[in-house]
Known about the structure:
Residues 43-217 form the AAA domain. Belongs to the ParA family. Pfam families: AAA_31. It comes from Marisediminicola antarctica. By secondary structure, the chain is an alpha/beta fold. The protein has one domain (3-15, 38-292): P-loop containing nucleotide triphosphate hydrolases (Rossmann fold). The chain contains twelve helices and seven strands. It has helices spanning 3-13, 56-69, 84-88, 99-104, 134-138, 147-152, 172-180, 192-211, 231-244, 258-264, 269-272, 277-292; strands spanning 43-47, 74-79, 115-116, 122-125, 161-166, 183-189, 217-224. The chain has a seven-stranded mixed sheet, sandwiched between helices. Helix 8 (192-211) links the parallel strand 6 and strand 7. The two termini are 27 Å apart. Residues 9-17 have low confidence and may be disordered.
Amino acid sequence: MTAKKRVDTAVLDGMDKPAVGPTGRPLRVFPVPERLTGHGPARIIALCNQKGGVGKTTTAINLGASLAHYGRKVLAVDFDPQGALSAGLGVSAHDVTNIYDLLLGTVKDAHDAIQPTSVAGLDVIPANIDLSAAEVHLVNEVAREQILARVLRQVIDEYDVILVDCQPSLGILTVNALTAAHGVLIPLECEFFALRGVALLVETIDKVKDRLNPALKLDGILPTMFDSRTLHSREVLERAVERFEDQVFDTVISRTVKFPDASVAASPILEFAPEHPASMAYLQFARELISRGAVA
């Protein structure tokens, strides 16, 4: 049995009995999706949370790898000056064309910035600290909120999914991502202060939808860094489900040291530890997104 089939079998075998998941809802089995016969146009998903350290970049990396595992062609856009997404995928963001060059128009063709990764079907547009100057340069631009949308329009027909990893703020870069996106994915650390910030983010999403992007949709909230051993994690997850109901995904990403280990190795968890429960969780999440229709 190939490694790919072994991973898929392990995921499904672990969920063949009815049970209640961490969200308090019955666990659902999301089927392994069929391979696509063609690619594009892409659905653009912005991964946003103004609070840092909630697993946003980890989710962008591992969701991208999981969707590629299921035959989707994925472009990850590093939209954070820290460049963590680029580093986590083992892609150099220095001395190469990056998203900053495209935003400023010093490079016109988005294809010049696309870099392959070690994962077949997963490409990335990198970023580095130069991106931190973008807000200053864009402030006087006409239709400055729509610059990323114009950049991604060049490649949207070549991918099935474009994941935009936003910086932890609600500034002009994040507004650009929300204006370009079809959907928003909010990683929510199972911690009280993270939960408080989600309400503010949802308000921002509603404003962008009302003023700039009427098609924008909240795809859902992904609980991350969940620790079933602590009452605090369980209570935060319970409150999130009470407040946002079905907008909270069934999939819950648990806290594990394997994620930072994989980051050091510059590899998605699916490659670093393919049979670890963390890998299974992101494969489950990819299947849930596809089953919900958020991804083709």
